[in-house]
Amino acid sequence: MDTLLTAEIAANSPRYRRRSSTFIDGVHDVKDEQAQAMAPAQLYSTMSGRLFHSGRIVIVLVGLPARGKTHISVSLSRYLQWLGVKTRVFHLGDYRRATMGPGVDVPEDYFFINASAKSVMIRQKILKKCREDIYGWLNHENGQVAIYDAVNPLSAGRESLAKEFAKHDVQTLFLESWVDDQKILEENARSVKISSPDFKDMNPDDAAKLYLKRIDMKIPHFETMKEPNLNWIKMINAGDQLEYNNRSFGYLANRIVFYLMNLHIKSRQTFFARAGTSDKTDYYQADAPLGEEGKIYAEKMATTLIEHREAERAALIAQGGSTAPLKPLTVWTSTRKRTVETADAFLERGYAVRQRSQMSQLHPGVCEKLSENAIRKLYPEEVEKHQSDPYHHRYPRAESYHDLAVRLEPIILELEREQNDLLIIAHESVLRVLYGYLMACDAMNIPTLKFPRNKIIEIIPASYQNEAKLIEIRDLNPDMIPGSPEDIRLPVPPSGMVSPLSGMGTPAMGINTPSEQTMTPPMLLKPIRIVKEEHPLSKD
Amino acid sequence: MELARPSRKTNGVGVQVGDTQVCVVMVGLPARGKSLIAQKAQRYLKWLSIDARVFNVGNYRRKGAAQPTADFFDVNNAEGERVRRAAAEAAVNDMIKWFKHEHGIIAILDATNSTKSRRRWIKDRCDSEGIETLFVESKCDDEDLIMSNILEVKTTSPDYKGQDPEKAAQDFRNRIRNYEKIYETIDESEQDLTYLKIMDVGKRCIINAIQDYLQSRVVYYLMNLHIKRRSIWLSRHGESMYNVTGQIGGDADLSPRGEQYASKLPELVMQSFEGQEHPLTVWTSTLKRTIATARHLPKEWNQLQWKALDELDSGVCDNMTYAEIAEEYPEDFEARDQDKYNYRYRGGESYRDVVIRLEPIIMELERSENILIVTHQAILRCIYAYFMKEDQERSPWLNVPLHCLIKLTPRAYGTEKVVYKANIDAVSTWRGKGSKALHEDPTEETESLAK
C-alpha cells in the first residue's frame, strides 16, 4: 500500500518538471546533467560543481502563509543560480498537493500540535518524500543549495531539523519572513488569494481579512525565531529590517544577506523596450542621436505602454479587483543618447527617468564598423570560437555576454529593490541579459534572445514563477523592427536555440525545436497579443 | 579601451555608484575597533575603484588638544566639550567640501558619535546637502577583545605616543568610562535612520532601512569583518620549471630549487610565529606548483584549493616567453606595458578581471583568522594591493620575489609587514616595462613585497 502510494507521489512529484522554453521562467527547471555550461554570472568553475568552499546548505524558510516565503525562495534561487551555485527549491506545498490529489485539502487539524494520528501520518508521509528529494539533490545530483519552502512554525521542530541535516553533513540556514504590518499582510493576501473560488463575489478587502483569519485558525501556533544556537536570518516587514544570528555563516550566507538587503516582497511589473533608431550609421563610439523614425517610435511606444497599463487596470476592476491607482512607473535608460532620447516621451509626460551608465550595450571591440563578411575574413578563428561559445567568447577588445552579466550585477540588485513599476529602455544585448536573469534562461540561450522593436515585453512576477507577456506597438515602419543595425553582426548559432518569441503558442516541451522561423513579426490586427502559460503546478 | 576606464560613474568592476554619495557614520565606544573598520572599508572601496576617504574627528581634535588626559572627555568639562564639538564640525565641513568639490563617493566619519543628538545633527547636515547617511554601530562587551584593543591603542594611537604604557592604558580606560556615562546605543526611537548594528562581535546584527545598492554593498563588506587580531601569510609557489625557462602560465612542476623551498617552508612558517605557535589554514590554487609547495606543511592543518587563486590567465600567450610574445603579438606586447592593469590578454584576463574574481577570496579572508596563502605572482600583487593600499598604476609592477614568506598583520592605523627569506636561490620573474629578457633583476627603485 505504502509503496503504491509512494509510486503515485513519485509520478506527480515536483522533481520531474518539464523543461521550459525561454518564454517561461526557467527557475524551476531541472537542468541537463550533461550540460556543463556555466551560469550567466559565474566567475569560475570547480570539479565538484560547488563554489566558494561553502559545502552543502539547506535554506529552511520559516513563516506563516502570505508572508512571501515562496517569492523569497524563488527569487533567491534565481540569484544563486545566476551566480553559478546549483540551487533548487522544494516547495512542501507541491508535495502536499501531489499527495492529497487534485482538489483535496489537508485535514483541518493538519497543522495543529495535537493533530489526530491520521493527520500526523499524512504529514510525515509528505515530509518524508520532500526530505528524500532534498537528499537526492544534494547527494546524487551535485546540488549545493536546497531551499526548503515550508511553514516550520515551531522552535522544537526547527532544532530537530537542523540536527537531522547536520547528521547528513549539511549545514542549515533558517530564513524567516516576519510581517506585523497589517497593510503588507493584506496586500499579500489580496494578490495571492483573489483568484480562489472561496472568495468569489467578495469585496477584495474583506476576502483578504477572511483569508488571514483562516490562516490564524489553521496554524494557531507560530514561534518567531529566537534560537541562539541556530543560524538564522529574519526579514522583517518585507525587508524594512533584517536581523541575523550568525553561528557559522560562510561566504554564501553573507552573500544571501547581501541579496536580501535588496529584495522586497511587494509585487510590481517590469517592462522592456528597445531604443529608437538613428538616421546615421550608429557606431558604438559615435553615440548617435535618434532619427525621425526613432522619434516616431519613441512616441508610439510611450502611448502604447501607457494605454496598456490603463487597460489592464480597467480589466482588473471589471473582474472585481482592486480599484487602487496604478503604481508609479519609473523609466531606466543607459547613458547612450538613443536610449535617453527614447525616454524623453515619458519625461515630457512627467514620469521619472533615471540614467544608468552600466546599462551601456555590449562593447563591440574590433567588430565595430566591420561587416559580417569582414569579420569572417579577418578573424576566422575568432568566429569559430564564437560559434562554439557565444556566451563567453569575446572578440578582440570586445566584451562577452558574461562580462556584461557581471557588469550588470548592481542593476540586477537595483531591479529587485525597485518598488515602482519599471520600464527599461536599453540596447538589445542588455535586454537579453536582464531577461535572462528574470526568466532564468540558460546562459547559452541568452545571446540569441530576440527583442523586435515592435514589442514591449512585460514581466509579471508571480510568486511561483515569472511570466512574460508581449505588447505590440502598432503601425511602425516595418524596416525598423527586426535586428538592430548597430549590433555586432555575428553569425547566429545554427539551430536548437530559442528566443523569447519563438516559443509563442508552441508547447514548452520541445526545447530542441529549431526556431529558424526568423522574426517576421506577426503584424496582426489584434491590438495586444497576450501570451500566458499556466504552470501545471502553479499555486492554487 | 574605453569601457575599462574607471570614472565616477563606471568603474568596470561590477560596483556601480550612480549619483549617490554616502556618509558612513561610525558609532561606538572607544576601543571597539571603529578606526580599524573605517580603515578597512576605505581600503576595500579603493580596491574596487570607488573613491572613499576617512574623516577622523580625533585628528581634528588633536590640532586643538594634542594629548589630553581623560578629564578632557568628561561631560562636565565644558572646555573639552567645546573643543570636541568644534572638531566634529570641522571634520563634517571638510567632508561636505570633499563631496562637493572632489566628487567623493563614500566618506567614513570616524568618531564615537555616541549620543542621539549628535547622530541627529550629522543626519540633518547630510540631508540638507543631499548626502545619504549609513550609521554603523559596533557594540561589543567582550572584555578580552576590549583589553587587546586598549593595548593596541596605547602603543599605536597618536594620543599616547611616547607615554608610559601603563599610565596610558589607565588613562584610556578612564576615558572610556567617561564616554560610557553618556553613551546611547541606536534603538527603536531611531528607526528612521539607515543603520547597521553589529553586536557580540558580529554574532548578531540588525540592518535597518537600507536605501540603495551602494549602501547594501558597504554593509555586506562590513558584515564580513571581524576585529580580532590575526595575520595573513603570503607566499609564491617555489621556483617552477617554467620560471627557469622564462615561460608564463602553464601548469609546470617545481624545479629542484623550488622543491628545496617547499621543504623549507614549514620551518620558515615556524620562524614567523615568533614563539607563538598556532595552526594555520592553508589556501592554494588548483595548479600543481602551489599544491606541491604546500605539501610539507603539517598534515593537521586544513588545506583548501581555490580555483579563484589560479594565476592570471594569459590566453593565447600561455606557455610563451616574453620574447616570443613580443615577436608574435607585437601590438599586444606594447599595449600591455601601456596600461598593464587594464590590458586583457587575448582570450585571457586582465588584472582588473582578476580583482573581480578575487572578491570571494577577499571576503573569506576578512571572515577568517590566520590564513597562509600559497599562490602566484599576479594574484599576490592583487591581494597585496588590497592590504597595503597600492594603487592600480603601481600594483601590476611590484616585485614579488620567489622563495620568501610575507606576514601581514592588519592594525588600526595600517598594515604591518614582516618578510622571512628562505635564502634559496631562484630566478627573478620580475620584468621592467618593455623588457623582453628571459630573467631580469629589479632596479633599486622597484617596489618589492619583500622589502
Into how many domains do the coordinates of chain B divide?
A: 2
Annotated CATH architecture of the largest domain in chain A: 3-Layer(aba) Sandwich
CATH topology of the largest domain in chain B: Rossmann fold
**Topology pattern of chain A, helix = H, strand = E:** HEHEHHEHEHHEEHEHEHEHHHHEHEE
Strand percentage of chain B lies at 5-15%
Fraction of helical residues of chain A: 25-40%
What percent of residues of chain B adopt helix (DSSP H or I)? 25-40%
Output the CATH class name of the largest domain in chain A.
Answer: Alpha Beta
From the alpha carbons, calculate the radius of gyration of chain B and give it in angstroms. 24 Å
State the CATH topology of the largest domain in chain A: Rossmann fold
The largest β sheet of chain B comes out as:
6 strands, mixed
Strand order of the largest sheet of chain A: 2-3-1-4-5-6
Strand content of chain A: 5-15%
The low-confidence parts of chain B are 1-17
Strand numbers in spatial order across the main sheet of chain B: 2-3-1-4-5-6
Largest sheet of chain A: 6 strands, mixed
CATH secondary-structure class of the largest domain in chain B: Alpha Beta
Query: How many E-type strands of chain B?
Result: 12
